[in-house]
Amino acid sequence: MSATDQPQPEWPPGPLWILRVATVFLFAARGFLYLTNHGPLSVFFWNQDWLEVGVFRFLGLDWETYAANSEVVILSTQKSMGWLFISAAAVACFVSPTRNRWASGVVLGGAVFLIPYWLLAWVETDYRLPMFLEHFLQWMTPLLLVGYGRLPRMLWCGLAWLAVSCTFVGHGHYAIGLGVPVTNDYINLCIAILHCNADTAKTLLAWVGWVDLALPVLILLPWLRVPALGYMALWGVMTAIARIVGHWTPAEDYYGLHPWLAEAIVRLPHGLVPLTLLVLLVASRKSVKGWKKIRVWKNPRKADECGPVGSRTAG
């Protein structure tokens, strides 16, 4: 039997639903942040180095006058983008590789408008590479949803691996302080959650950071892929929830917690996308060999479970 005559792997529905949920969370939380004036657009609109010449040339305004009157434009633009994200969240559950192309179009539009947030968050940190890498997965999540069942299986798996790898490498750099300072936010989160001192928090963050840097390699090794993806899924969700645990203040009736709740929800894809890969891996193994024959630690020379290019898709 030739390679072209071999049966192609199914695209199971489980990973599709996880991606749908991840995309809904991402867009809904990002939309809420924009609607409550927690967007980054002021980084662009109030960047004097970028805009001063254009403001004077095209608007005939000096910078002080422009800065004093531009807040209304910033807030209205943010709210418009916020409603676009809410709309994308509302239709993300209808994305399917075989139907509802309109839903895919709306989600792709939302992904386009995630790019300014991604880039402006990077600019706000003085172009630090770890921040650029950390937010890459958030931008890729809706693209992975739209591509599920449409792209060749190996290509889709490669893009998902790249997205989760970038985010965990970014996390690792910040946790270790590799090329960037260890932020007080990370240390304070660790102290608030574990009730440890600052030195212990720094040591724990360093260990976790080195593991994060190793994970992109570990998930390429067939005999370590399942535990590595399981760790990434668990740790990604835990670090998202840590935004809530580290910032709630019961003594103040949880005042001011709502942006941190949204910040936690928007980061849930950091764990849900690795979970998608894990479920796809297990489902692929189960369909070929049966659940009882799955081997995690043995037989490292087994073929890649992402398998050959898929032609059949989940509904």
UniProtKB/TrEMBL annotation:
<feature type="transmembrane region" description="Helical">
    <location>
        <begin position="105"/>
        <end position="123"/>
    </location>
</feature>
<keyword id="KW-0812">Transmembrane</keyword>
<keyword id="KW-0472">Membrane</keyword>
<feature type="transmembrane region" description="Helical">
    <location>
        <begin position="204"/>
        <end position="221"/>
    </location>
</feature>
<feature type="transmembrane region" description="Helical">
    <location>
        <begin position="155"/>
        <end position="176"/>
    </location>
</feature>
<protein>
    <submittedName>
        <fullName>Uncharacterized protein</fullName>
    </submittedName>
</protein>
<feature type="transmembrane region" description="Helical">
    <location>
        <begin position="228"/>
        <end position="245"/>
    </location>
</feature>
<feature type="transmembrane region" description="Helical">
    <location>
        <begin position="265"/>
        <end position="283"/>
    </location>
</feature>
<feature type="transmembrane region" description="Helical">
    <location>
        <begin position="129"/>
        <end position="148"/>
    </location>
</feature>
<keyword id="KW-1133">Transmembrane helix</keyword>
<feature type="transmembrane region" description="Helical">
    <location>
        <begin position="17"/>
        <end position="36"/>
    </location>
</feature>
